[in-house]
């Protein structure tokens, strides 16, 4: 009889262990719950694609290495967006520097590189050639004129280029999502260029970057550069995403959960990116 009681007691203890012991192991602590709330879906989500909050002419073009919202009335992009990571920083192609009209546009709408000749403005990449060395097609299409804006030569080869290099450093740490494009004043500061087309010269440029999504620690930062000469440190161009949105009339990174988007877009701390 004692043996029977002993067996029953052991069975009850085992049942209690599985009912309560393992259950406690599977419980999520408050800290874990907080971390989980920061996790976001990453597979097949186009975090880089913005939404315009004001009406503008647009032809949406999907290229090999980026997406461009091209404005056929102004003959420059509204925005250009792309994803950058360590895999895309593998150098397989050299810069070809062959600017060409985008074959997806009708001939009468396609800007050619000759339109910039003698204008005093550089053909400034929005999605840089340096981000497209991983594939020959990506490199070639980075030189489509739909990816180009009139840009001050000092800015193009100076501080703007420094930001492009900083983005490539950040992409080595994990996938980043980038959107950039022109900022246009209501009353243009510069005369348009071109003979066959009137190409709008931007007053400034913006670039916004989202990082840390895959790691569950998303952060974002914005930059604004006037289309003039300058030689200043990176942190002098920093703006919050909210500030860039107000200036551009765009909603950046709308695929993020609203609470995360609101939290990371109101602040801008360059120290998180050093």
Outline of the structure:
With 274 residues, this protein is of the alpha+beta class.
What characterizes the major β-sheet?
A: 7 strands, antiparallel
Q: Could you say what the CATH topology of the largest domain is called?
A: Extracellular Endonuclease, Chain A
Distance between the termini: 73 Å
Radius of gyration equals 25 Å
Which regions contain 5 or more consecutive residues with pLDDT less than 50?
Answer: 1-37
- Helical residue percent? 25-40%
Structural class: alpha+beta
Count of alpha/pi helices: 7
Mean pLDDT over all positions: 88
The proportion of residues in beta strands is 15-25%
Quick one: overall form?
globular
CATH architecture classification of the largest domain: 3-Layer(aba) Sandwich
Q: So what's the CATH class of the largest domain?
A: Alpha Beta
Overall tally of structural domains:
2
Provide the CATH superfamily of the largest domain: Extracellular Endonuclease, subunit A
């Amino acid at each position: 009889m004692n043996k029977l009681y002993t067996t029953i007691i052991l069975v009850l203890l085992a049942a209690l262990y599985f009912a309560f012991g393992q259950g406690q192991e599977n419980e999520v602590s408050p800290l874990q719950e907080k971390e989980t709330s920061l996790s976001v879906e990453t597979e097949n989500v186009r975090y880089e694609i913005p939404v315009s909050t004001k009406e503008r002419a647009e032809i949406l073009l999907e290229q090999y290495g980026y997406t461009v919202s091209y404005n056929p009335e102004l003959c420059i992009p509204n925005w250009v967006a792309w994803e950058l990571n360590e895999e895309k920083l593998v150098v397989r192609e050299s810069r070809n520097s062959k600017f060409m009209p985008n074959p997806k546009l009708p001939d009468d709408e396609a800007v050619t590189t000759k339109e910039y000749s003698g204008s005093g403005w550089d053909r400034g990449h929005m999605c840089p050639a340096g981000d497209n060395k991983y594939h020959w097609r990506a490199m070639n299409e980075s030189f489509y004129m739909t990816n180009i804006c009139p840009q001050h030569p000092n800015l193009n080869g100076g501080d703007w280029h420094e930001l492009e290099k900083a983005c490539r450093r950040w992409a080595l740490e994990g996938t980043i999502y980038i959107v950039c494009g022109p900022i246009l004043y209501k009353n243009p500061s510069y005369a348009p260029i071109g003979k066959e087309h009137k190409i709008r010269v931007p007053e400034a440029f913006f670039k916004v970057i989202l990082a840390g999504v895959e790691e569950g620690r998303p952060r974002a930062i914005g930059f604004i550069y006037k289309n003039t000469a300058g030689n200043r440190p990176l942190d002098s161009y920093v703006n919050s995403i909210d500030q860039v949105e107000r200036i551009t009339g765009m909603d950046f990174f709308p695929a993020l959960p609203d609470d995360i988007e609101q939290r990371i877009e109101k602040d801008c701390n360059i120290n998180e990116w050093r």
